[in-house]
Amino acid sequence: MTRIVTASLVGLCALAAPAATAQTGIDILQQTVTVDVVQSPLTIETTVLFEALSPTTEVYTFSTGAQAATWLVDGVPTTATDHPQYPGQVEVVDLPAPLSAGETATLTMQLTGPLDCGAGPNTVMCWTSAQETILINATVNAGWYLVNLFGADDFDATLSVHAPAAFHVAGPQGGPDTTTPQPDGTLVHQLSIAAADRLTLYAGQADLVEVDAPFAVTGAFHQAGDNAVYMEQAVTVASEAIGVYQDLFGPLPFDHAYLTTVPPNFAFGGLGDYGSVYIGEYIVGHPDYRYLLEQGMAHEFAHSWWGGMTSAADFAEGGALQEGLAEYSAWRALGALQGDKVRDAGMRMNAVWYLLGRPVGNDIAPFDPAVQDSPVYLHVAYHKAAAVYRAIEVEAGVDDFDLALAAVAAGGPGALSGQALVDELALLGHDVGPIVDGFLRQAGYATLAVETAYVDGTQTVTLTNLGGQTFTVPVRLTHDDGTSTEHLVAVGGAPVTVAIDVDRAPALVEVDPRWTAPRLLDRTGADVTFDGVVDAHDLLEVALRRGGQMPDARRMDGHYDPLYDLDDDGVIDEGDQALVSGG
Q1: What are phi and psi of 96, to 5 degrees?
Q2: Is residue 404 within a helix (H) or strand (E), and if so which, with residue range?
Q3: Tally of CA atoms within 13 A in the half-sphere of 384 that contains its CB
């Protein structure tokens, strides 16, 4: 599940930095957007009040793809032309007269006809038909309101929608929503949106399912088979996850959220916005994808904080911050709702997918400006970054990390950055700069070499991080009777030994058993339990991991794990068990 934008948009934002001073010379203050889906063809009028922060002669906006577009500045007609560097992607609106710093102007954009929402071969980013209109946040060929392309710029907005009385209408935030009956039996819906930098709209004939508590969520979908049952499941998880997030990261400034299905030709599986989530209808309707109903909804609604309440200050860091924190938060919420084992299993899947699923072993730093165009973008921005935030949580403690995240979320659009996390945690007495630098600003992962020994009531564990990163590693000792203790070990490049007093030798020494960092364990020999001997415990560990079957929820993805591949043949099978038996 992801907030995917088109490849052309990715390239645009990455290349457009030299023009930033021109566009960030304005501040969008207020937008009034009127959409009429009753009349044919579709009409959209966007009126924007903006202030010039520096001398300004032009304004940029996404290309609209509309059949007809007209532009007015303070009532004076003007023209919009293709940006010379980004034809077909960005339009330049000329101002009839230059603006000085501090001056304001009103730009009116009038669009007529269905939008050409093409995002690539057979994919779209918006949808208009007689039955429904779906407008997601503005992007190439789907620019239906004004966006400050080169900087975070929040604004207040009023979204007015003229629709048939039978239509469900939902915007990006929950209210207030007033409806005014028209003489022809249609309705005008008016929604007020505060401090947003993106707008979304759904207006159409849909079946609805609603959950009121712990947070009100309405789901709009098209009935087919068991879709109502699964849509209710998705809406329930969304409501519960939002309740968890409000406790962790602060309340939302609205009291209603929306979940809407979109046709399968949309260029994303799921898109999370500020109080509004759009998912492919196949996720509800197809059994192969329904596993995303819970983890996907938890991830997408987390974007109401990471991308909604706050957003990245730097485009290069945006993916790893907004997507990585949404993924981290999703497993926090599911853990709170369904138990720690679910969270641990999810974080393990994140780490393993990054470590072992990257195409041909490619890697790149999550904060690298080139990450958006990398074939391993998903692996590092979603999965490695989520594991790194878990490592920061271990370093700072969960309570202080929650306080830091809440403080950053309250900062608003453009306040989210790696340095902001470092600074907030420094105020609480924690130095997480080495973790951010070692894992987010650099490629690679930790590889931990483990040595253990038990002598006369003392268990020693020596950890060496062959990757050189500095972070804290949980170590768990478990005895034959099932009792266990956990200890935190700070590691860097040099070997670190911790001595733990115990009343008997442990049966199992686990290094980072909850997968709180992107790391591998460097196995030596058949002692996979790291208790210092090769015995039945090792045989049990290897046997249960054959074919991906593992005790409890430590292994739910069935992925290969080199720790148990004792003969290094790429599979975990009877050969590995035989080595343990022989030992």
Answers
A1: -60, -30
A2: helix 398-409
A3: 32
Quick one: tokens of 570? 């790429």
Q: Residue 64's closest CA among 145, 185, 173, 163?
A: 145
The letter for the amino acid at 97 is A
Tens-digit pLDDT profile for residues 498-525: 999 998 999 999 999 899 999 999 877 8
Sort strands 26-36 and 155-163 into parallel, antiparallel or unpaired: parallel
At 449-499, the pLDDT tens digits run: 999 999 999 999 999 999 889 999 999 999 988 899 999 999 998 999 999
Q: How far is CA 415 from CA 16, 189, 246, 406, 408, in A?
A: 21, 32, 19, 12, 7
CA distance 173 to 193: 6
Calpha distance 340→487 (Å, rounded): 18
Cis peptide preceding 77, ω within 30 of 0? no
CB contact at 8 A, 310 and 329: no
Strand 270-272 to strand 276-280: parallel, antiparallel, or no bridges (unpaired)? antiparallel
Tokens of 352: 């393993």
Q: For residue 229, give every residue at least 6 positions away whose Cβ sits within 8 Å of its Cβ, in sequence order, or none.
A: none
Cβ atoms < 10 Å from Cβ of 571:
12
The span from the CA of 24 to the CA of 78, in Å, is 21
Per the omega criterion (within 30 degrees of 0), is the bond before 214 cis?
yes
Residues 6+ positions from 273 with CB-CB distance below 8 Å: 3, 136, 137, 172, 198, 200, 303, 304, 307, 308
Contact 409, 394 (CB under 8 A): no
